[in-house]
Predict the structure.
Amino acid sequence: MESGKRIKIAQLLKSEPGISTLVKGWVRTKRGNKNVAFVALNDGSTVNNIQIVFDMTRFTEEQLKPVTTGACIAVEGILTASPGGGQSVEISAEQLLVYGTADSDTYPLQKKGHSMEFLREIGHLRPRTNTFGCVFRIRHAMAFAIHKFFNDKGFFYLHTPIVTASDAEGAGAMFQVTTLDLNNIPRDENNKIDFTQDFFGRASNLTVSGQLEGELGAMALGEIYTFGPTFRAENSNTPRHLAEFWMIEPEMAFYEIKDNMDLAEEFIKYLVKYAIDNCSDDLKFLNDMFDKELLERLQSVVETDFVRLSYTEGVEILMNSGVKFEFPVYWGADLQSEHERYLVEKHFRRPVILTDYPKEIKAFYMKQNEDGKTVRAMDVLFPKIGEIIGGSQREESLEKLEARIEEMGMEKDGMWWYLDTRRFGTAPHSGFGLGFERLLLFVTGMSNIRDVIPFPRTPKNAEF
Ligand code: ATP
Ligand code: MN
């Protein structure tokens, strides 16, 4: 068989009958009788299988025996119009090559309908299921659309560091990075760990956010975005948190909070519409199998304006709702997912952008409002998820920023490089962070964040 002739199934299913072809893929099912065998083959290019018909006058039973669920085969044959329902074309097989067998007694994906929990335990094989094939193809499409959206707008993709000595973001607990011998840690005269002997000459960590470095880029290139992995060592075992997740962080010079909200809303709508337009087979499968309202929900987000309201108004609505929340609501409380979802799902029935949060529950770099109590933060809240985006206008005044850093008891010395953006040619600017996996939860309708990333990193879970 000539390897160059291989055609992917996604393309074959759109082709006219009559051509001779070569397909390669993994067997989903085999059925048939003495005269004919039907094999459903999938190669990952689409959720749809191609049917391969083996006329048993041309093949022996011995030849077909290793063709079982999970086996990998190559087939040469003629693409023919399919008389059966469900597919327009099938392959009438002429030659068969078995690359790899899959013992039906031990292959874990023998049957359909495994639980998501079980599939997490066989994370190395779950990409071969229809569900995870759909999710990972959509994940790819969304990553591509993110780059396209920003590139078309003239934003530059800025690579911010993964290892950093900056611990100023305060966005979450950090993983330490070190080459020190943990069995023999060097100490200074005060018995403190001597990080001058460490690889970077100082204590360093995995990044929790690329924002601070992103701001440096925005103050030079105008409009940038980052798209990379971030790490948070919080021990939170929720369906919305990972220890390693991907974040998209645009940062824009001369944007004020309203421009920031407009961009966030346009961005999410663009991505959801891109999925509807380009991932229809995968979305239809997920809609039919898991979440009958998925397509409807996606369409409605594209079509409706997001509600914009202040934190203070949001808290009033929650306090007057008469609902008994697990976590109490009051002005000053950090909103929990249950509160966010009440506003989105019950009260407004559409996405909400909440602004002007109390400064105590937000980061030091957010622009301070005139009232002295709130900052120009904006969180985008989504159905089923809660917070999907967190962002703000940034404080551009050196004086106010330094005062806030002091007020919060933070270490100013290590921040000199960040403060230089305010010292030299400062300007109003804004940005936000979209959690990539939170977006994927929404777009795929999956309910656990572990099921939208190929290799989830969560507490006690990093084997492969
Ligand atoms: P949350 O309150 O939901 O824990 P956060 O306020 O700590 O989130 P930010 O620091 O604002 O999160 O991060 C920006 C975005 O990154 C969030 O809006 C969310 O989409 C995503 N995100 C944050 N933490 C995680 C995590 N542990 N796993 C996956 N995505 C996350
Ligand atoms: Mn946030």
Observations:
- Residues 184 and 193 are 11 Å apart (CA to CA).
